[in-house]
Sequence to fold (372 residues):
Amino acid sequence: MELYAKKEECCGCGACADLCPAEAISMVRDTEGFFYPRIDSQACMDCGQCEKVCPVKNHGAECRERLYFGVQARDQYVREASSSGGMFPVLAADILRRNGVVYGAAWNERMEVVHREVRDMEELETVKKTKYVQSDLSGIYRRIREALKKDRWVLFCGTPCQAQALRLFLRKSYEKLITVDLVCYGAPSPGIWSDYVKYLERKHHGTMTDFSFRDKRNRDNGHARSYRIGDQEYAGSLYGDGYCQMYFTDFTVRPSCHQCEYCTTDRDSDFTIGDFWGIENVRPDLDDGMGTSMVIVHTERGRRIWETVKEALSWFPCGRTDVLQPRLTHPTRMSKGRRVFMTLYKVLPFSLFLTLFTKMTPVISLLRRGGK
Ligand SMILES: Cc1cc2nc3c(=O)[nH]c(=O)nc-3n(C[C@H](O)[C@H](O)[C@H](O)COP(=O)(O)OP(=O)(O)OC[C@H]3O[C@@H](n4cnc5c(N)ncnc54)[C@H](O)[C@@H]3O)c2cc1C
Ligand code: SF4
Ligand code: SF4
Ligand code: SF4
Fold:
């Protein structure tokens, strides 16, 4: 049995592996550094459950009235320590006050991105901020089901395909489950990220302990990046960073993301959150460079939570067209030179590959001609 015929048909959510009653599915890394499910045909019982949980095969949202907002956390520390306007930490704090649990993406000890469970405000720090690396959800779907069965409040935040995979995994709606999905540019390769971490560690002779893709030190809505190796901090422009250049030129995006069905405002999560692109046009008075979130409230449950959290936010209502940005209308296009890029990644030592990539910007621009 095969779960996908082409790589574009698997987003790597890992829900099939977590669900399989025979534990016949393992997630295996391919040569581009992405994880895909592999079925052990000896162990498989042919029950078909793995196909029912797949968010690539099972998408589509209910038609309903939605609310649109621009928001900024009132607490300046909360806003500074998040990527956009701080909507996620405000929602998460509300769930923790209800003695609930929060699931979000964190760095592990090897600087890989994994979803983890958070039970208090101290742990919440670990899941704040955008990590531009596909996160690993192994075991998380099962843990969320256990928490819900114990009647706990649960907040899950992740990409829209992960949030949909969770809903499919659970099979029924839980009143105490809040799903929050992100506006999503695409999932970058975890393998390329790990090679980049090793490269920086060799360069600076130490162990990396933190990396921020959205550092707000310049009050420019988080367009700096910074990282810590040993007791030194290194900071610079997001656009001057080799790894980020590869991502923003679309070479390291997962194949499925170029055909993503979730690049729309119509979703089934309770909330969608992202950067409020164009805030300088919609509300120039609020654009202070410290980030504004756009929020879509999709469900009745989401509206009830919104009423409890809005006191912690400066917010304004707006229309659908105000929050629109490319990733809410169509997926990121595949770069024309992606095949060449991935072939070079496979055959060259990573440091040479990275140097070539960063020095050859004009050639790369030529390869990418074709637009977004
Ligand atoms: C890969 C990726 C691409 C994105 N693309 C866009 C985009 O094109 N346009 C846009 O407006 N916004 C995009 N975002 C979302 C944006 O960067 C912020 O994460 C979002 O606005 C929330 O910010 P915040 O201030 O509310 O909270 P923050 O404190 O920044 O919270 C971030 C939340 O995102 C989750 N998260 C972080 N990294 C990952 C990850 N790798 N996988 C799954 N969940 C993760 C964390 O668990 C946390 O819940 C993207 C995020 C990611 C991870
Ligand atoms: S068909 Fe059933 S047993 Fe086989 S891999 Fe899928 S979920 Fe597992
Ligand atoms: S459930 Fe997720 S990991 Fe499994 S085949 Fe579908 S997209 Fe891929
Ligand atoms: S672009 Fe789509 S398929 Fe890719 S990670 Fe985001 S939601 Fe999933």
